[in-house]
Amino acid sequence: MTSKAKRAQYTLEFKLEAVRLVKAGQSMAAVAATLGLVEQTLYNWVKADREGKLVGAGAKPVSPEQMELARLRAEVARLKMERDILKKAAAYFARESM
């Protein structure tokens, strides 16, 4: 007996936020890693957005609070990544000055 793996479903707002981050200049690899996506999936979303065919999972309406929550989660993930980079840089320079 084999069971199919359940595919993740993402809201349109989540996809649009991910595409916005790529359009804002962040690398596709960094955005994909931050949001826990496969880079090819993100590439497909950017391509679909460019063609005007980006759609979300289901027709369930999303409240403004849910949209804000998704935006804040993405921002927190980005800030954590920046913090980790700064920690590593500080440790590197502290070790070098000794």
Annotation field: number of helices? 4
Shape: elongated
Calculate Rg over CA atoms: 17 Å
Give the CA-CA distance, first to last residue: 60 Å
- The pLDDT mean sits at 84
Largest sheet: none
Could you name the ranges where pLDDT drops below 50 across 5 or more consecutive residues?
A: none
Give the total of domains.
1
Element pattern in H and E: HHHH
Helicity, as a percent range? 55-70%
Number of strands: 0
Question: Which structural class best describes the helix and strand composition?
Answer: mainly alpha
Strand content: under 5%
Describe the structure.
Helix 1 (about 10-25) crosses helix 3 (about 40-50). The radius of gyration is 17 Å and the shape is elongated. The protein is mostly helical and about 100 residues long. Helices cover about 65% and strands about 0% of the residues. It has one domain. The model has no long low-confidence stretch (mean pLDDT about 85).
List keywords for this structure.
mainly alpha; about 100 residues; 4 helices
Summarize this, please?
The chain is built from 4 helices and no strands. The protein is mainly alpha-helical.
Detail the topology: elements first, then pairings.
Layout: H1 12-23, H2 28-35, H3 39-51, H4 64-96
